[in-house]
Amino acid sequence: MSISSLEKTGEKPGAGRLASAKSRILGKNPQQRSKLIFCYAMLTPILLLFFYIRIYPIMRTFIISFFNWDYTRRVHPFIGIANYQAMLTDSRFIDALRNTAVFSVATVLLSIILALPLSIVLAGKIRLAPIYQAIFFIPFITPMVPMAVAWKWIYDAKYGILNYVLSLFHISPVGWLVYPETALWAIILMSVWKVIGYNMVLFLVGIKNIPATYYEAAELDGGGSWNLFRYITFPLLRPILLFVLVTSTINAFNVFTQVYVMTLGSQSAPGSAVRVLVFDIYSNGFQFRKMGYASAEAVFLTIVVLLLTVVQFKFFRTEEG
Amino acid sequence: MNSSATQRMVASPFRRRLQQISGSVTRHTILLLGSVIMLIPFAWMLATSFKPPTEVLTWPPEFIPRNPTWQNYFKVMETIPVMRFFFNSLVISIISTLSVLVTSLMAGYVFAKFRFPGRDVLFIIILATAIVPFEGYMLPFYLQMISIKWINTYQGIIAPYAIMSFGIFLMRQHISSAIPDEFIDAARIDGASEWAIFQRIIIPLSTSALGALGIFAFIQAWGAFIWPLLIASDQNIFNMELGLTAFQFKFSVDYGPLMAGSVLNVLPMIIVFFILRRRIIESIALSGLRG
Predict the structure, then answer these.
(1) Residues A184 and A103 in one domain
(2) Whole-prediction pTM value?
């Protein structure tokens, strides 16, 4: 019921409610009123824009996933959960899901496991630390496409330097990006290289925030460096570890650019050697115009990401307690 | 005090020094090795970009070009409008960064310092949508862009980057912790209007946080790929990333020009990084850790 319709009825309780609603929305005195007007004036355009570029498309993805939606046609028949059913038996979707899961777990774990010792070494008093830090950070700051192209050249089956280095150890050349299994790991390696510096910098901030007195006390008690890590660094770094774990898993699940650039070339097969979820969404939605089906996949992706976030928070909370 | 600590305290200074040196040698070895691995892709890219075609495909590969040449760079410049792509990337990144800064500051301030009905619900909604990946709702967003005829336009590419939920969160955190209420109330008592308070108190006291957010937003917009790939088919509005991808399809295995294109693509970011190195690392660590 709108305010104007309340006004017209002129009933006493309605009028009372109107007055309270008015004072709640517009404020009791002039100063409060100007404050609230300012609030709404600032927020309204932002919220409208926010609705248009976030809320509405998120809701619409969910809705479209129940339709057979080809955007070049006028009619979009409702088909219930058929898209979801088709998805679960689609071998390409299953393939994409498996690849994405392997990619995420491997990339996240490797990049954390490698970044942690590096940041511990850098946190100690060491000369040239800022320079090392910058070098490790450069890959993170550079755009993905050119670096993916460069790695493609490194992985080249005939003339790539990776195969050259391996040939020094008498390992015969491998077509890294040609076969699905090696291609997936080649992309994982490249992606770890790309994010390691970011994780390192975050860990470094965390380690430097740990008071030095903790370490001094532990050293007096005769703790070795492993024990220092086990009982001081690791527990106190937990919030940052959680943050890195959550954000890098989310990012990893949305992997697309490096896969697209490294496995789709004019020389490779029409399909991609490595199918990942976002690529599947992209190709179903835009190449095959199966928007409904692709939306079902997108909903699935979103739910997986949300679940992962919740699980990771739960996991770390309980261990803390 | 237990025995090992006592032992350490009586250990001769010479032995301690020796331990320190060997420790620092291993540490430097680890770091150096890591740095080399980090830099190899860049070095290999740069080296290849200066090689004539006959030297690119050789076995065993040689690192330093024997007859360095600029020809790969000329070839890139002839084939694709590099400067145009660079300009497009710049336009897209600057406008979306400005938009993120303005909207984050305004919304962050309101959420931090005002009480109004629905505030907490709205804020929670904004935070919750931050977790939903863009790839999860890009399809309907594309349909929206079709219906308002923004396909193949700058505004269409910029649209999804106009607001950053995380930026609103970051500015709210900053303003509520760094700007005391007393400042704002004192200005009100002095008769300053709400807009004047925003302009003269909030903006000047938020510059450091805005700088950090700006760097973060700019880097994100600069590397944008999947959305431009969907919405832009007209070469004239390609950003650097799309331009290089299109170039890659043209020169699939012609690695000389490809590497030259990649160098041109990476160069602006690397130059900026070396100028603002400390500030960039701090900003990214900061914006990461507040989240």
Answers:
(1) yes
(2) 0.86
